[in-house]
Design brief:
Largest sheet: 5 strands, mixed
Strand order of the largest sheet: 2-1-10-5-6
Order of helices and strands: HHHHHHHHEEHEEHEEHEEEEEEEEEEEE
Radius of gyration: 28 Å
Shape: globular
Strand content: 15-25%
Length: 529
């Protein structure tokens, strides 16, 4: 019986130690949240550690994360960080039962790690960014030291630190832990509230923004551009459904009234800084452009179409005295930087070759959503987003590819990345079981800045058959297609391929997304019955 009693006592102490560790970790994060709300929300420890993890993740691993978790990849990362911190907090809580100072020092160590991550972020604002992690760690260490000293030790033992140990009852420990939990929850809630208020100016500036009418409106979409096939994608993607793939754990909320864009660098004869009002007072153009993410697998969802409103980027560059390499300009790379220090590099030649490269301010008839770059983002038709679609842009620097590698290039993605010709089957879905007989096979095809000339469908190993094409809205948009299939009973593989406006047929060769986009034919297996 004595052995059972000893086990119960030890187990109870262990539970209290684990609880003390978790409460210390919770307190540290709550206090850090509050300090970050007062200093800079992007400097919170989970955000800076998560950002550091993203920066150091190999391209293949990041590609796997996007492929597996989709747009929830950042949420999964944050949950993973919190779970890891929770396990470490439990370990420190158990350690503190016998070594209170060592346990508290462990919490401080994690604060130092968070501070180091904050100070090494590309968008660091200096020592102020280290405060959330350090202050939060100090609070967590104090709580752990306090609670660990109140977890009742085994009979006859003393504190390893030589200090007397008060033997609180279980009820006393629970009371102290409850007060700590309530206080930490209040502090965290206050931090979140203050963080939300910091973005109210940006929200208000977006709500107050009235977009001017375009000097060059987009042509009306041709009749029939949206096929009536059930299950096919909408030609124009609603803003709320538009894909989002970026590295921002906290979406920047930029006040339109204080936003500025600087253009400078090699071959810039007249460096300029523009406000949003400067851009809105210029002739705006409206264009239908389909965007594609380089992380889009064959048949993947990371593509969307919108009607964009903005300023011609080439006009701004010429105004600053920039010339493309083909006309003697010394810079061949345009590096776009966002407010969170993301840097994307585009070929100057592509930006200035006459295509509708934009600094966009509007999306589908409204100011850009925050998730998609408010107040201004960059768009270059025909290029994957990682070399062209800088959101929350604030800086444009002219340089050369030899002199500078942008963010993704440093991670083994290609420097130049024109969008590859692709076609996708939207309906029927993989493993669908349509009735035998007349079945509509339909989907989309894209080859931005070249256009789609032809789409073909193959059933099993049969001959390629031409699909019916919807009218093309422009060379920078995707194009819908359909094929009337007389399905026979049994399992069948449906395959699609496209031919672009230059006459080049989509390659069958399979390639993963790294380093310059996926390739291969999309196919689905269905069973007709």
């Amino acid at each position: 019986m004595q052995g059972v009693s000893t086990f119960r006592t030890t187990f109870a102490r262990g539970l209290r130690g684990a609880a003390a560790g978790l409460l210390a970790g919770f307190t540290a994060l709550a206090v850090a949240e509050l300090v970050a709300s007062l200093a800079r929300p992007q400097a919170g420890p989970v955000t800076v550690v998560g950002g550091a993890a993203i920066d150091r993740t190999p391209a293949a691993v990041k590609d796997f994360a996007i492929r597996t978790f989709g747009e929830n990849d950042k949420l999964v990362l944050q949950l993973g960080i919190l779970a890891t911190l929770g396990l470490l907090a439990v370990a420190l809580g158990l350690l503190s039962l016998r070594h209170r100072r060592t346990g508290a020092a462990g919490v401080l160590l994690f604060g130092v790690i968070g501070a180091a991550a904050a100070l090494t972020r590309p968008d660091t604002q200096g020592p102020v960014d280290a405060l959330p992690s350090l202050v939060g760690a100090l609070a967590g260490a104090a709580i752990l030291y306090f609670l660990a000293g109140r977890a009742a030790p085994a009979a006859g033992t003393e504190s390893p630190d030589g200090a007397p140990d008060r033997r609180w009852s279980r009820r006393g420990f629970l009371a102290a832990a409850s007060v700590t939990a309530v206080a930490a929850t209040g502090v965290g809630a206050l931090g979140r509230t203050l963080s939300g208020r910091r973005g109210q100016g940006a929200v208000a500036s977006r709500e107050a923004l009235k977009l001017p009418a375009p000097a060059s409106p987009a042509p009306a979409l041709p009749a029939g551009v949206q096929l009536k096939a059930q299950g096919i994608s909408a030609f124009t993607t609603p803003n709320k459904d538009f894909y989002r793939v970026d590295t921002a754990l906290v979406v920047p909320r930029v006040d339109a009234d204080t936003w500025r864009l600087r253009i400078h660098g090699k071959g810039v004869a007249r460096p300029r800084t523009y406000s949003l009002q400067d851009l809105l007072e210029r002739p705006l153009i409206e264009r239908d452009i389909t965007l594609t993410c380089v992380s889009n697998e064959v048949g993947g969802p990371y593509i969307g179409h919108a009607r964009w409103l903005g300023v011609r980027l080439a006009d701004l560059l010429r105004e600053c005295g920039v010339k493309p390499p083909s006309k003697g300009g010394p810079a061949d790379q345009l590096v776009a930087r966002s407010v969170d220090a993301m840097a994307l590099g585009s070929p100057v030649e592509d930006v200035m070759d006459g295509r509708d490269a934009l600094l966009a301010v509007g999306m589908n008839g409204e100011p850009l959503p925050f998730d998609h770059g408010f107040p201004v983002r960059m768009i270059v038709p025909g290029l994957y987003g990682y070399v062209s679609a800088c959101k929350w842009i604030e800086d444009l620097e002219l340089t050369t590819f030899d002199a500078y590698d942008a963010y993704w290039v440093k991670r083994r993605w290609a420097r130049k990345a024109p969008i590859k010709t692709q076609a996708r089957i939207d309906t029927p879905k993989p493993f669908a079981r349509p009735a035998a007989g007349a079945v509509v096979v339909a989907g989309v095809a894209w080859a931005q800045h070249r256009g789609i000339e032809r789409v073909e469908v193959r059933v099993d190993d049969g001959p390629w058959q031409d699909a019916d094409l919807a009218p093309q809205a422009g060379v920078d948009t995707w194009r819908q297609w359909s094929y009337p299939w007389k399905a026979t009973a049994g399992g069948h593989t449906l395959t699609v391929r496209a031919t672009d406006g230059t006459g080049a047929v989509q390659t069958e060769e399979r390639a993963r997304t790294v380093p310059d986009g996926a390739s291969g034919w999309h196919s689905v297996f269905v069973t007709a019955g």
